[in-house]
Amino acid sequence: MPSPTVENYLKQILMISLESHKREVPMGLISDSLKVTPGTATSMVKNLEKEGWLSYKSRKGVKLTASGRKLGMNILRRHRLLETFLVETLGLDWSEIHDEAEELEHSISEKVLERLDDFLGRPRHDPHGHPIPTKGGIIQIHKNRSLLDCKEGMTVTIESIDDQEKNFLKFARAKHLVPGSKIKILSREEVANAMELKVGKRNPFSIGFQAAAKILVSA
Amino acid sequence: MPSPTVENYLKQILMISLESHKREVPMGLISDSLKVTPGTATSMVKNLEKEGWLSYKSRKGVKLTASGRKLGMNILRRHRLLETFLVETLGLDWSEIHDEAEELEHSISEKVLERLDDFLGRPRHDPHGHPIPTKGGIIQIHKNRSLLDCKEGMTVTIESIDDQEKNFLKFARAKHLVPGSKIKILSREEVANAMELKVGKRNPFSIGFQAAAKILVSA
DNA sequence: GAATTCACTTTGATTAATCAAAGTATGAGG
DNA sequence: CCTCATACTTTGATTAATCAAAGTGAATTC
Questions:
Q1: Which of A59, B107, B178, B206 has the lowest tally of Cβ within 10 angstroms?
Q2: What is the pLDDT of residues B172-200, one digit of tens each?
Q3: Measured between CA atoms, how close is A86 to chain B, in angstroms?
Q4: Strand pairing of A205-208 and A145-146?
Q5: What's the whole-model pTM score?
């Protein structure tokens, strides 16, 4: 049975690979996202290769094998179903569920997970708007645009918020930047690195480009 | 933050102490219940002492300190609330919840636990009939008699089943030996090491003394 | 094309938890 | 009181995961 650490590495590698739309994931992104030193990532990745979860080319990066991808998907499913449970059933706030789910995902059994899935009515998306992989490991991929890619005058719908940072999630919620919201881009100020938005009929406000990149939308 | 291992040692020591009605717990029971070698228990217990969770006297045993008892109670609370959730909400079987809860109890946060408690309606007993410690670490102690202590002709009510072994729990459930059931002791056969029981209006059946000792009752 | 920088790898050490096996104290029986 | 078994303790080794710091290869810059 793989350790929580193994599960975390595989989940994280999978997520980077999904986000970047590339099969090969460089070591730097792995050590950054797992908050370990580069040396730790290197030695861990070598073990993961020995155990058949991925293949590793020195100074190139890693590629998940079929079993590595499968396990990664499974952990992602756990994570997103748990987040859904925490919000839908227990009423926790959107901004505080990530760390909770991060812990629980490693100890919930397959059996309990499937019961939970039934109990929740087999949701397809988690509270952030991210798709939940199926039991079979299939994930629906939206090639999402971020708010940053949108031009002045466009009106778009939020698909998901692509960040786990608490303060950012609180900010997003406060401004009604939640999946499903319709937003109009009033203006883009390339020099100021900010854009002015209007959510529904609320007062307009501004958001920096860095933050805008975290908000994924569909036209 | 204490590791899962530390939490398990403290929970187990607390449970032994509650069951035996003694403050001092011998090393042998600790290593047995945690399924580690005696040497492992000795070295672990020394660390626990260094960290202030308990006091240890060589070849005598251990006593929990106030903080050790508090943490132990907290883990016991987690365990029993989780078992309740697994049965009540997700509909798992009585006989399969122990190991699940054993895993989850170390990763659920205080916050989620209290939400769960609310969601479940602040239950006082878990599905086995064991009392759930309060948030403040108070546990209601029944000085339970076991079925083994009962005489021929008595009618008693089941309080709890004092075993986690799957097959035994399945057997108990099949025979309606569940908390709340009323049982009449039809006969005791000291020589055969068995007693004949009648649960409600069902057909009588026999149960060995060893099994009878695991069924705690009140008159 | 040499120097520098960045990204990564290697090395050596540490920590928590464990086991096997050898050693020792204590209490019970002769 | 001596012996012995039982119950524990000690010792030495192992494993997974980590870090700090030193080393190296590849790309960028001059």
A1: A59
A2: 889 898 898 999 999 888 777 788 999 98
A3: 8
A4: unpaired
A5: 0.83
pLDDT at B142 > cutoff 70: no
Q: What percent of chain A has pLDDT over 70?
A: 99
* Beta-ladder partners of A54: A64
Structure tokens belonging to residue A154: 């466009």
Residue A183, CB-side half-sphere exposure with 13 Å CA sphere: 33
> What is the chain B residue with the closest CA to A97?
B112
Look up residue B116 and give its two tokens: 């769960």
Q: Please give the Cα distance from B118 to A115 (Å, whole number).
A: 20
Q: By a Cβ cutoff of 8 Å, what residues of chain A touch chain B?
A: 86, 89-92, 96, 100, 103-104, 106-109, 111-112, 115-116, 119
Read off the DSSP letter of residue A51.
T
**Coil, helix or strand at residue B98:** helix
| B167 residue type, one letter | N
Q: Do B108 and A111 touch (CB under 8 A)?
A: no
Of the partner residues A108, A115, A119, the one whose CB lies closest to the CB of residue B104? A108
Residues with Cβ within 8 Å of A170's Cβ and at least 6 positions away in sequence, in order, are: A95
